[in-house]
C-alpha cells in the first residue's frame, strides 16, 4: 500500500481540541502520514515513519480541506448584467432565479456537466475538498432529476431544491406546485439526493409549504436543510430546528427566539447548525448576519459560499473566511473552524473538516506559515497544494 508523508509543516490545524491548541487544535513540529486516502498517523516530525512518497510543506500551514456545505452549481448562463444593475442601485429580490431556470432547462446535459465540473475544480484549487451541490434551477420533474444526477457525479452531498421558487407556469398556483414537489418530483429526485431543502422566504415558500415538503422528504429518507431568514424575518429558522434540520442557511434576520432555538439545539451532536453565507450579502450589498450574536449565544456556525450565478457567484472559501473576519467580526480561528469543521457539522460528517487518524486525507497546504493569513492576505492565492482522498490535486 502506497504511503505519503507530509512534513516540514509550519502549523497543523487539526480541529481536534488539545491543551494549548485552542479551538483549531493547533500543533507544531508534527508530520502527517496518509495511506489509502486516510490520515493514519500524526506525530512529532522527528518520529515520522518512512513513506513511499513525501510532500515538503515548506514551513507552510496545513489545514483540513474546506467543507462548502451550500452551493448551487447546476445551472446555465450567467447574470452579470443583473449584478451590474444591482451595484447601480437596483434591489435584490430573488426574482432573477427564473432567468436561470429558463437557461438551465434549455441547456444540454453536457453543458450543465461542464459547468458543475469547472466550478468544482475552481473550488478545489481554493482548498474545497467537500462540496454540497443543490438542484433548483430545473423545477420540472425531469430537469430536477437530471440536475441531481449530474451533481451526484462529483459529490455525495446532493440536495433536492425543487422548492427554490415557484416556476412561471405555476404562477398563482403555489399549492399545485408544492403538490408536484412532494409527489412525482421528490420520487424522481430521491435516488440522486442525500438532502432536501426549501427556500422558505416571503415571495418563495411559506412555513406550511416548507413543513409539507421537508416532512415528506424526511419520510423518503432525505436529511433536512433550509434556506431561512435571508431577506427578512420569518419562521424558517425555528421550523428547521423543530424538524431537526442539519442546517438552516443564511440566518441574516434573526429574532431572539430564533437565536435561542439554535443555541438550544447546539447542545447535541445532531443539532441544527447556522450556516452563514457572506458572499450573498457581499454580492447583493446587504447587511451581513450577526455572527457574534450567534457565537456568543453558543450556536454552531458554519461558513459556505452559496455559489450561484445570481446572488453569490464565488466558489472561494478563503474569500468567505476573509469576509467573516473583516465584516462579521469572527476571529480568524472561528472563521477557519466554521469553514472546515462547521461545514462538516452542517453536513453531519465526522470524516472531513478534521485531521486525525481515521479522517479522510482531505487537506490543503498554504504558502503561508499560519491559518491567520487566509484573512490577513485577502484575495491572494495562498493555497499551494490540495490533497483529496490523499491524492495531490495541484502540480507543484
Ligand atoms: Zn442558496
Describe this structure in words.
With 396 residues, the protein is an alpha/beta fold. Helices cover 35% and strands 20% of the residues. It is built from 13 helices and 18 strands. It has helices spanning 80-87, 97-106, 109-125, 141-151, 174-189, 207-219, 236-243, 256-265, 278-284, 291-296, 317-328, 332-346, 373-376; strands spanning 3-7, 11-12, 30-35, 38-44, 53-56, 61-64, 66-68, 128-131, 133-134, 158-163, 195-200, 223-228, 247-250, 273-276, 301-303, 363-366, 383-388, 391-392. The strands form 4 sheets. The protein has a 7-stranded parallel sheet with strand order 9-10-11-12-13-14-15. Strands 2-6-16-17-18 form a 5-stranded mixed sheet, with no helix packed on it. Helix 4 packs across helix 5, helix 5 packs parallel to helix 6 (207-219) and helix 7 (236-243) runs parallel beside helix 8. The longest helix has 17 residues, at 109-125. The radius of gyration is 21 Å and the shape is globular. The model has no long low-confidence stretch (mean pLDDT 96). The chain binds zinc ion (ZN). Zinc ion (ZN) is lined by residues 70, 72, 227, 306.
Amino acid at each position: 500500500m502506497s504511503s505519503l508523508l507530509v512534513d516540514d509543516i509550519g502549523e497543523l490545524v487539526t480541529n481536534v481540541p488539545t491543551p494549548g491548541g485552542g479551538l483549531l487544535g493547533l500543533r507544531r513540529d508534527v508530520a502527517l502520514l496518509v495511506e489509502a486516502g486516510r490520515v493514519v498517523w500524526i506525530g512529532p516530525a522527528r518520529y515520522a515513519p518512512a513513506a513511499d512518497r513525501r510532500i515538503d510543506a515548506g514551513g507552510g500551514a496545513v489545514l483540513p480541506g474546506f467543507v462548502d456545505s451550500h452551493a448551487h452549481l447546476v445551472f446555465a448562463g450567467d447574470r452579470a448584467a443583473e449584478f451590474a444593475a444591482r451595484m447601480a442601485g437596483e434591489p435584490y429580490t430573488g426574482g432573477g432565479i427564473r432567468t436561470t431556470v429558463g437557461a438551465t432547462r434549455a441547456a444540454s446535459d453536457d453543458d450543465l456537466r461542464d459547468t458543475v465540473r469547472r466550478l468544482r475544480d475552481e473550488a478545489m484549487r481554493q482548498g474545497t475538498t467537500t462540496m454540497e451541490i443543490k438542484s433548483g434551477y430545473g423545477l420540472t420533474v425531469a430537469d430536477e432529476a437530471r440536475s441531481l444526477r449530474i451533481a451526484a457525479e462529483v459529490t455525495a452531498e446532493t440536495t433536492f431544491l425543487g422548492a427554490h421558487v415557484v416556476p412561471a407556469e405555476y404562477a398563482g398556483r403555489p399549492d399545485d406546485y408544492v403538490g408536484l414537489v412532494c409527489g412525482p418530483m421528490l420520487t424522481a429526485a430521491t435516488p440522486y439526493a442525500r438532502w432536501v431543502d426549501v427556500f422558505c422566504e416571503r415571495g418563495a415558500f411559506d412555513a406550511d409549504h416548507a413543513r409539507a415538503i421537508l416532512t415528506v422528504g424526511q419520510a423518503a429518507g432525505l436529511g433536512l436543510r433550509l434556506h431561512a431568514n435571508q431577506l427578512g424575518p420569518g419562521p424558517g429558522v425555528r421550523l428547521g430546528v423543530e424538524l431537526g434540520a442539519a442546517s438552516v442557511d443564511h440566518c441574516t434576520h434573526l429574532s431572539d427566539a430564533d437565536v435561542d432555538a439554535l443555541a438550544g439545539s447546539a447542545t447535541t451532536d445532531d443539532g441544527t447548525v447556522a450556516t452563514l453565507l457572506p458572499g450573498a450579502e457581499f454580492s447583493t450589498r446587504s447587511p451581513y448576519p450577526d455572527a457574534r450574536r450567534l457565537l456568543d449565544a453558543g450556536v454552531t456556525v458554519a461558513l459556505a459560499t452559496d455559489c450561484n450565478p445570481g446572488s453569490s457567484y464565488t466558489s472561494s472559501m478563503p474569500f468567505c473566511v476573509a469576509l467573516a473576519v473583516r465584516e462579521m467580526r469572527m476571529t480568524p480561528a472561528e472563521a477557519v473552524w466554521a469553514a472546515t469543521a462547521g461545514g462538516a457539522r452542517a453536513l453531519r460528517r465526522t470524516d472531513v473538516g478534521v485531521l486525525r487518524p481515521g479522517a479522510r486525507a482531505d487537506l490543503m497546504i498554504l504558502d503561508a506559515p499560519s491559518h491567520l493569513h487566509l484573512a490577513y492576505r485577502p484575495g491572494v492565492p495562498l493555497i499551494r497544494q490540495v490533497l483529496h482522498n490523499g491524492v495531490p490535486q495541484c502540480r507543484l
